Amino acid sequence: MKYVDEFRDPELIRKTSDEIHRVVDPDYHYRFMEVCGGHTFSIFRFGLQNLLPANIELVHGPGCPVCVLPMGRMDDGLSIARQPGVIFTAFGDVMRVPGRQGTPLELRARGADIRMIYSPLDALKMAIDHPDRQVVLFAIGFETTAPSTALTLLRARERNVSNFFVFSNHVLIIPAIRAILDSPDMRIDGFIGPGHVSTVIGAHPYEFIAKNYGKPVVISGFEPLDLLQSILMLVKQMREGRSEVENQYSRVVPAQGNIPALQAMNEVFEVRPFFEWRGLGFISQSALKLRPEFARWDAEVRFPVEGVRVTDPKAAQCGEVLKGVLKPHQCKLFGKECTPEHPVGALMVSSEGACAAYYHHVHLRQAAGE
Amino acid sequence: MCLAIPGQIVELLDGDHHYAMVDVSGVRRKINIHLLKQEGAHLGDWVLIHVGFAMSKISEEQAAEQLRLLGMSGEADEAMQEVLGYQFGEGNKT
Q1: What residue of A is the nearest CA neighbor of B55?
Q2: How far A247 CA sits from the closest chain B CA (Å)?
Q3: What is the mean pLDDT of residues A181-196?
Q4: Distance between CA atoms of residues A170 and A151, nearest Å
């Protein structure tokens, strides 16, 4: 309860926490999955598990884009980065994801022109500024980020920029949730729905989880109180024998989603027949590639890649952690060979990855003398 | 990646391309507001920003809360780094 007094409305936090304790079935072990990496980060950062009864287990889902990126995709991207004349651009998180030959940062140290960007529009500007170079955007992210890539491509077409290319690794949250629901070794009682993704896709796409699988879904904001309220809503749904999609984050998430974002995505992208996810394997119709009309800007057309499959380092158990079968600290490498400074697996790279979030949380607590 | 940064629209730029100048904790930066097309963007609106794009409009109170959340979770510096790092607004080429 160490942080509670810093939170907005600590009184309401305590009340919500007390109510969760009051309404749970003490004889049942609840497993709720927070799908979004931003939620994973908040849960660890604010020590929310301490405010929950011992029989509510939070399982950390696949909603961290760099964590679910298979190593083979990273290698394919880096093989493009090594080609002469290429400027390879990526978000900060991607810069430290290891491929077989090292991370983008390490490859840059060996001479490749790899630059960190904060927006897809930065990569487009780089292409306009360097007409003699081929600028490649290593695009990554769920539906939160995909519209930004789509709008950047529409802008590239409008400006007739011919030296800008997108290597799309955009993935879709719904097929990932479906894969988890269909996975025989996973028992999840309910889902904390992602906040930012839902601002784009709305609340309707989750209906099948409630209707066909009988699992409650609550779309949640990111503050401690948001997450606690969402967990309470999930417990209440179960207690009342309901399975519905509820929107705790309705102050930001419109039921219909963001129409201009969905239109831009639809104009630029089509769904891939299948795509490999780290830890979850191949999931059909779970990722986005550029439509043929945008082949001129498609890095996969311009720079054919091997499409290799690379298994993760043997000792690393990223897959089991990603599926919630293992907790981060139960991986043999956790905190030893694999740390945020020297990540072996991608879950240790991003602050949204379960391993990095858990690692920082443990260290914060140690620093606080707990 | 999942950072959502609150900012206030202080200037609407070329209407065709949907850009606006926002103020994030005293730093002014150009962002893209195409995704607000349906809601409409006006001077003084508060928005959540992700990778250079306004994702949604929020209230002033929510913006303050989001800033506090970023501060509490040690992400405020990273958020400012991101906003300062947007290069596409310079030289007005994109």
Answers
A1: A199
A2: 16
A3: 91
A4: 14
Contacts of A125 in chain B (CB under 8 A): 87-88, 90-91, 93-94
Mutate to test the interface with B, among A7, A118, A266, A267 (most CBs of B within 10 A): A118
Count CB-CB contacts under 10 A for residue A266.
12
Q: What CA–CA distance (Å, rounded) separates A17 from A189?
A: 19
The answer for A 130-149 residues in CB contact with B (under 8 A) is: 140-141, 144-145, 147-148
Contact A300, A137 (CB under 8 A): no
Work out the minimum CA distance from A362 to partner chain B, whole angstroms.
Answer: 15
Quick one: DSSP state of residue B34? G
**Is A258 close to B86, i.e. CB distance below 8 A?**
no
How far are the Cα atoms of A137, A223, B56, B89 from residue A78, in angstroms, in the given order? 11, 36, 34, 28
**B66 in helix, strand or coil?**
helix
CA–CA separation, B16 vs B37, rounded Å?
A: 11
User: SS in 3 state form for chain A?
Assistant: CCCHHHCCCHHHHHHHHHHHHHHCCCCCCEEEEEEEHHHHHHHHHCCHHHHCCCCEEEEEEEECCCCCCCHHHHHHHHHHHCCCCEEEEEEHHHHHCCECCECHHHHHHCCCCEEEECCHHHHHHHHHHCCCCEEEEEEEECCCCHHHHHHHHHHHHHHCCCCEEEEEEEECHHHHHHHHHHCCCCCCCEEEECHHHHHHHCCHHHHHHHHCCCCCEEECCCCHHHHHHHHHHHHHHHHCCCCCEEECCCCCCCCCCCHHHHHHHHHHEEECCEEEECCCEEEECCEEEECHHHHHHEHHHHCCCCCCCCCCCCCCCHHHHHCCCCCHHHCCCECCCECCCCCCCHHHCCCCCHHHHHHHHHHHHHHCCC
Strand partners, A189: none
Could you report how far apart the first and last alpha carbons of chain A are, in Å?
Answer: 12
**Least CA distance to A349: which residue of chain B?**
B1
For A41-50, A132-141, A306-315, B34-43, which range has the lowest pLDDT when averaged over its residues?
A306-315
pLDDT digits (tens, 9 = 90+) for B10-56: 999 976 668 999 999 999 999 999 999 998 999 999 999 999 999 99
Q: How many residues does chain A have?
A: 370
A219 vs B contacts (CB less than 8 Å): none
| Torsions phi, psi for B10 (to 5 deg) | -110, -10
Among the residue ranges A15-19, A282-286, A346-350, B14-18, the one predicted with the least confidence is B14-18
List beta partners, residue B24. Answer: B27
